[in-house]
Amino acid sequence: MKHNEFGMKEKKEKIGREKPLYLGHRQRLKERFLKSPQTLPDYELLELFLGILYPRKDMKPLAKKLLEAHESLSGVFFQSELLSHWGVVCFHEIARRLLIRKIRQAPILNNIEKVIDYAYLSMGHLAQEEFRIFFLNKKYELIQEETVQTGTLDEVALYPRILMGRCLTFNAANLILIHNHPSGDPHPSKADIELTRALEVALIPFQIRILDHIIIGKYAAFSFREEGYLGKSANLQKSCHAFESMGGEKSAPETI
């Protein structure tokens, strides 16, 4: 065996036989997690998760760096470069399926927070605007969730005739509109407000109600229902009452 004057080869061989220090730290972290998962700070929980994705690397520096850059766990999982890793994509899909199952188990009005969580999980990371709709029956139970339109970085169009056609396909009585703002600001634009009011009016002859329009931002969501934006169209309530008093029924959709 050859050695240089500093014995470097021998030293490298010894180091090669030793386990990396982070493995012992990771094992202790795992034991703490199994004993009391809720007590781990965010960076350690993220470090543990990253260790599953990258088992041969020390993940503590990366966990701290990601949290510092994205401010929270939600920012890391919905806005970071981790979204390109298959393990994170798998995690997203599992969480999405669990949430939609929960939403289907009870009337939607009792699950509105879960709807927001689901929308944030599904759309919060998208680089372009997307319009999704929850189609509900008269008991406010979910019939179908569907992406009806995909747009650009800062706008997406939803045409009333397309919406009404889908409503009749699913025999929906109530709707929840959802779209995202890739800019991060969940507050509605003037176009968002005008579109929502136009859709409310267009759906009156079909006796279909918009229960909410939710906008998903980077770290927050905006609810038209909670902020009192629904039912504000001119003469909307009068039109509804007049139509109901006439005993109106659903008719075939017209092109608008």
Describe the overall structure:
A five-stranded mixed sheet has the order 2-1-3-4-5, sandwiched between helices. The model is unreliable at 4-8, 10-15 and 234-256 (pLDDT under 50). It has helices spanning 8-17, 21-35, 42-53, 60-70, 73-79, 86-104, 112-123, 160-170, 190-203, 236-245; strands spanning 130-136, 142-150, 174-180, 209-216, 221-223. The protein starts with 7 loop residues before the first helix and ends in an 11-residue tail after the last helix. The longest helix is centred in the middle third of the chain and has 19 residues, at 86-104. By secondary structure, the chain is of the alpha+beta class. The chain has two domains: 8-70, no CATH class; 111-245, Cytidine Deaminase, domain 2. The chain is 47% helix and 13% strand. The protein is elongated. InterPro entries: MPN, RadC_JAB, UPF0758, UPF0758_CS. This is MPN domain-containing protein. Residues 102-230 form the MPN domain.
